[in-house]
Amino acid sequence: MTATARGVVDLLLETRSLNIVLWAEEGRLRFDAPAGVMTDAIRAELVARKGEIVAFLADADIGERSTVRITMRDGVRLAADVFRPRRRGAVVEEPLPVIWCHERYRRAETVEGGVLTKLDSQPWLKEMLRNEYVVVVVDSRGSGASEGTRRIEFSHEEAEDAFEVTEWIAARPWSNGRVGMYGLSYSGINQLLAAATAPPHLTAILPQMAMFDLYEFLRPGGVFRDDFARNWSDLVRGLDTRAGAAGAGEGPDGPAGYLAGHQENADVFGQAAALEFRDSVEPVTGLAPYRDVSPANARDAVSASGIPVCHLGGWHDIWARDTTLWFRNLDNPQRMVIGPWSHNNWKNEDLAREHLRWYDHWLKGVDNGVMAEPPVRYFTMGAGAATGWRTADTWPPSEARPRELCFGAGPSGTIRSVNDGVLVEAGTPAEDEGDAYTVDYSTTSGRTTRWSDGYAGGFHYDLTPNDRKALTYTSAVLSEDLEVTGHPLVHLWVSSTHPDAAFFVHLSEVDERGETHYVTEGVLRASYRGSAPAPFDRMGLPYQPGTRDALAALPPGEPVELAIDLHPTSYAFSAGRRLRVSITCCDRDNARVEEITPAPVITVHRGARHPSRVVLPVVPRA
Predict the structure, then answer these.
(1) pLDDT at residue 61 tops 80
(2) Which of 354, 370, 443, 509 could form a disulfide with 517 if both were Cys (CB 3.0 to 4.6 A apart)?
(3) Which pLDDT belongs to residue 362?
């Protein structure tokens, strides 16, 4: 604490001892004092330090925190923080709407003798208190200061806990019975799983960056994202088993009581590494996790609940595609907002605005027009902050039209890559040829990707070094801006000297200096290329079953087609720049690829018989 802050505290303690009541109102300092108590010296000091006092009061007196334990049906007690708003320095006594978070990453922590709460780490929540919502944060079972053990993530008992917590909140005297949920990442998923249980008082939810398909996240195209799985597993293991979570009246055993149960939590990475196929069974629980606890399998129950859902996502999030799949697969009253964000990179003012509009409408009955607007709101990257936001009635936007750019021989003269190929308009005459590539196991999209950002590892791309080691196909200079909004699709015709290979595909923009700017990506292991009807609405995009019996080796020397859908995006490629598709067979820092010696040689075929190409969803210029 700074000397200035200590001075404000000392001053407020003095005024309180004299029964002088101070509060901030619309940026002004107000007071109420008994006759004769307010001396000239105190008045002068209050006037001189008015600005810092108002700021301190506005922040410090925004709400009152209390802690409690909520007992579940099996006796497990969950730790909870309850923040009740203040009005003119006094806690609001009348029942209010409540929003709560089912938190996986500790609801509060002890830091240097103090307590760091979610109001500190997520400042937008203060706006909810200022607008007179009660905010509740609950440690999920087996985590934080809650009791219990976690046998598997996204368990059914965790969803049942959410049902009970919701109804417990609705019965409190400070609640008016209208309950919403909020939360990012795991807490976003928890909202949807809670909605699937249909708690009677759960009125609306706002899942932020929530996963849809567990298999497609952990093993996209059959490629294991071991870096994310390992780091996330280490992260939660540390949070679950080390002291530091702020208590909530633990009882005589203190933290040792709940930490003992946490020691028995499942090894998340060990489970994920062993579950190779979509139908793999986890031996301890007997569950097939990709079937039994994947959030996607709750979609029908979420729809049946009728609970209004606002999906909040980011184009550079680990679950950008998942956000759109939730929107397409639910029948609830819903809205989808996707901004230029990654998993851990967003603005508090954006979060406050979106939450207030959604909950004012559904929890307070305010006619603010949020449901009269087009249900899709998204930001087009590269279009500029002032003009980047767009709306649509559907996803993908109905005006988007497919535009094919085929792979050609080149050179483009833009990069010294393995081949320096070109992208040309469909219909351009081309010879049936191929580009050979010896698999380079040093290739990587970096250590600060959308995937590392998912476990707070940072977000920044520099694809130029990767492209120099890749097969690249670069367009001519664009004569006008080109807006790509939707799900780009890459068709690769490939053959290999080995029965299998993983194909990592990046779409980027190349600027006037020849530097590449990441847009989106996709991946597919060739042996997983088989397609099948999806069990949910996948917007016509390819769906790989991912089961052992669906695998098919590459036939020796024979070209086969791979259809790889890239993560959705909305990006305005600028006139004077170029598009590029780059292809490697390894992303060393982000995914597990078996290293084979000698390295296989793959060939990307192109031409009339084997038209390798990218299909872009292009929005026509207005």
Answers:
(1) no
(2) 509
(3) 98
Q: Which amino acid is at 103?
A: E
Whole-angstrom Cα distance, residue 377 to residue 389?
7
Map residue 84 onto helix, strand or coil. strand
Region class of 405: left (phi > 0), else alpha (psi between -120 and 50), else beta:
beta
pTM for the structure as a whole: 0.91
CA distance 578 to 275: 40
| CA geometry: angle 420, 423, 424, nearest 5 deg | 135
Which of 364, 357, 393, 359 has its CA nearest to residue 376?
393
Tell me how far apart the alpha carbons of residues 66 and 182 are, in angstroms, rounded to a whole number. 19
> Are β-strands 578-584 and 471-474 bridged in parallel, bridged antiparallel, or unpaired?
antiparallel
Q: Are 27 and 130 in contact (CB under 8 A)?
A: no
The residue ranges of DSSP E strands in 118-258, in sequence order, are 134-139, 175-184, 202-208
Judged by average pLDDT, the poorest of 80-89, 462-471, 558-567 is: 80-89
- Mean pLDDT, range 94-104, rounded to an integer: 98
For residue 408, how many C-alpha atoms fall within 13 Å in the half-sphere facing its CB? 18
Residue 601 pLDDT exceeds 70: yes
Q: Coil, strand, or helix at residue 358?
A: helix
In terms of phi and psi (left: phi > 0; alpha: psi -120 to 50; beta: otherwise), the region of 230 is: alpha
For residues 386 and 412, the model is more confident at 412
The secondary element (H helix, E strand) that includes residue 619 is strand 613-619
Does the structure show a pLDDT above 90 at 620? Answer: yes
Residue whose entry in the numeric block shows the structure tokens 């709400």: 63
Angle at 33 between CA 29 and CA 34, to 5 degrees: 175
Residues forming a β-bridge with 335: 310
Count of residues in the chain? 622
Q: Specify the pairing of strand 175-184 against strand 202-208.
A: parallel
Beta bridge partners of residue 531, listed in sequence order: none
How many whole angstroms from its chain centre is CA 483?
A: 24
Round to whole Å and give the CA distance between 330 and 402.
26
> Coil, strand or helix: which one is 231?
helix
Nearest Cα to Cα of residue 590 among 439, 450, 440, 438: 450
Nearest CA among 59, 56, 70 for reference residue 100 = 70
